[in-house]
Amino acid sequence: MRRPLVAGNWKMHGSRQSVETLLEQLASQDWPDQVELMVAPPALFIGQCNERLQSTPIRVAGQTCATQAEPGALTGEISPAQLRDAGCEFVLVGHSERRALFGETDEVVCKKFAAALACGLRPVLCVGETQAERDAGQTTTVVARQLQAVLDTFGVGGLAMGVVAYEPVWAIGTGLTATPEQAQEVHAMIRARLAMLDDEQARKVQIVYGGSVKADNAEALFAMPDIDGGLVGGASLNADEFGAIARAA
Ligand code: PEP
Asked: Which residues bind substrate (predicted)?
């Protein structure tokens, strides 16, 4: 009943030329009908991506957004309203790189989630523990805390209007992937916590896995009952690999 989502996070990669080449290659892939597809390019390339991907099922996302929808004196920021105006349908919020390198707190991430929803974007709320937190047995505590601010404000129904991405920090860009069982354990924990609040809505929430997803591990991950697709970093910069991951969902 939940449609899988396969999303690509291009991070700070690409030039106009390399993006053009990647878009051409993406446009010629064979995309599965039953899977939602999205890429999050650097903001500079959102227009180019929207134009070139119009004839494909791939939608475009921002990698982050401002905490407010209204225009203002916020040099360097991009509002969710501007992302929507540029044709985006999704925006990532709370990616671990934003949390770790740019000091985004749960409160800030919640404001971004709220602003995105208010603009008609689907926020992808990224959560996940570091290696030290996992080693200390704190995975559940950390992930529950990261979800809580959004749940307090919007409930499970609001969360279901977006997407949850479970991305263990130790698996992002490291080549270390959570095993399907490790990932499923956390996805099931998330869904069980949501179900305690609202069982019906909890069944609708798309929970995707991120952390070194590749063509050769995607099928086993996506076969897990609570893993509804993937958020793919490095491998999404290769159209053939991203296509193979999408077809595994
Ligand atoms: C990410 O950036 O969200 C990510 C999961 O990266 P990678 O697939 O490269 O680990």
From this structure: 9-11, 173, 212, 233-234
